[in-house]
Amino acid sequence: MRPIQFFADSPKVPFMKYKNAGLAFAGLLMLITLVSLVIQGLNFGIDFRGGTLIEVRSTQGPADIPAMRNKVNGLGLGEVSMQEFGAPTDVLIRVQQQDGGEQAQQVAVEAVRGALGEGVEYRRVEFVGPKVGEELITYGTLAVVLALLAIMLYVWFRFEWQFGVCALLTLLHDVIAMIGLYSVLQLEFSLSTVAAILTIAGYSINDTVVVYDRIRENLRKYKKMDLRELCELSLNETLSRTVLTSGTTLLAIIALFAFGGPVIREFTGALIFGIVIGTFSSIFISAPLLLNLNLRRPPDKPVKDETAVGAQV
User: Fold this and answer.
1) Whom does it interact with, and what assembly results (predicted)?
2) Which of 133, 167, 208, 294 lies at a C-alpha separation of 20 to 30 Å from 89?
């Protein structure tokens, strides 16, 4: 039984012809990210900046989150986010940190109570201080860095050192591009964003390893083929798998983006961008970088001379 193929015949897309353009575009993305981070930075959410968490339960059936959001947004408390928390009757409300210390936070909580009115049971009220936010930033950054290093070491062990270094550079491109998206558009950067970045890193390295595995196979199969042509052949041979995987994943996330509601729209939008960038980097960055790092063919294993061995016996 033949595997599912997106293309009827093996495509012959001249990827290596556009490798410099691809690397230039990647460099442009990095430059835009750097400039945006310097000028306007990241729009950290309540998870990192601190604020007040209020968990409520509707006593009149499933919570009407849009109506609750409209009531609270008119209080002038700054950034306020709401999401379903566990059951349809439970809602988690995040209110940004107010100026004026603990007393100001209490005033904000009372304002929220007054706006929501009757029919709401308050189950939990917690204050997240800026120190906790700083720790979350530190641990979130550490999680991303350790994940990238672990991936590089795995690819290095599984293939050769050039593959490990190129995989790390490819993943750094994807992570920085994701951060740049949040900086340029000033989307809320929260713990969910860190989860999205790690998700895209895992998705991208999966596609990159498939390409690298085919390159390694072809290095052994085609002993005299030019390395540039060999990388191009490997990319074309895995292109059907790349298109099918990215396409089916995008269909699911686009559906979530369109019908999942405003609470997860930023998150799913970032995932869509990340999948596109991850697919781009697997094709136009991972393989061209191997050529720039002087990828070499594995040495041929010496073949035993069976005649000589028989003569010795």
Assistant:
1) Forms a complex with SecD. Part of the essential Sec protein translocation apparatus which comprises SecA, SecYEG and auxiliary proteins SecDF-YajC and YidC.
2) 133
